[in-house]
Write a structure and sequence with these properties.
Elements (H helix, E strand, L loop, with lengths): L2 E5 L2 E3 L5 E8 L2 E12 L6 E6 L5 E3 L7 E6 L4 E6 L8 E12 L5 E7 L3 E5 L2
Parallel strand pairs: 2-11
Antiparallel strand pairs: 1-3, 3-8, 4-5, 4-9, 5-6, 7-8, 9-10, 9-11
C-alpha cells in the first residue's frame, strides 16, 4: 500500500510563511512528478506547483515568485515553501505523486496517489 502524508499546515498572518511536506511510503519503485494542489471552499481543486523527478518545476501564475516546490528523492518527500502568504492562499493543500509501486508479486503498478490534505489559513 502506498501512502502520501502531508504536514506543515496551519494558521498564519498575511505576509507570513509556511512550509508543507509530503512524505511517500510503501512499496515504491519510482516516483515521477510530484505536485501540490489546493482547494478553497466553494472552488475547484487547482494545481499550485509541480516538480519532476529531475527537479524541473512549474507554478501557477498566482503563486510564482512566492512559493517554491522542492523534493528529496532519497526521502521520497516533496516540499512547498510558501512565502508572502495572502488571504486568497487559504485552502486545503493536497499533495499528489505519480508512483510506480510494487504489487504483492513484485509486479509494477502505476498509481496517482493523493494525500489527505492539510489546511492553510491566512488571517490577520
Amino acid at each position: 500500500q502506498v501512502q502520501l502524508v502531508e504536514s506543515g499546515g496551519g494558521s498564519v498572518q498575511p505576509g507570513g510563511s509556511l512550509r508543507l511536506s509530503c512524505a511517500a511510503s510503501g512499496r515504491i519503485s519510482r516516483i515521477d512528478d510530484m505536485s501540490w494542489y489546493r482547494q478553497a471552499p466553494g472552488k475547484e481543486r487547482a494545481l499550485v506547483a509541480t516538480i519532476t523527478s529531475g527537479g524541473i518545476t512549474n507554478y501557477a501564475g498566482s503563486v510564482k515568485d512566492r512559493f517554491t516546490i522542492s523534493r528529496d528523492n532519497g526521502k521520497k518527500t516533496a516540499y512547498l515553501q510558501m512565502n508572502s502568504l495572502k488571504p486568497e492562499d487559504a485552502a486545503v493543500y493536497y499533495c499528489t505523486a505519480d508512483i510506480l509501486a510494487l504489487g504483492p508479486y513484485d509486479e509494477y503498478i502505476a498509481l496517482k496517489s493523493w494525500g489527505q490534505g492539510t489546511q492553510v489559513t491566512v488571517v490577520p
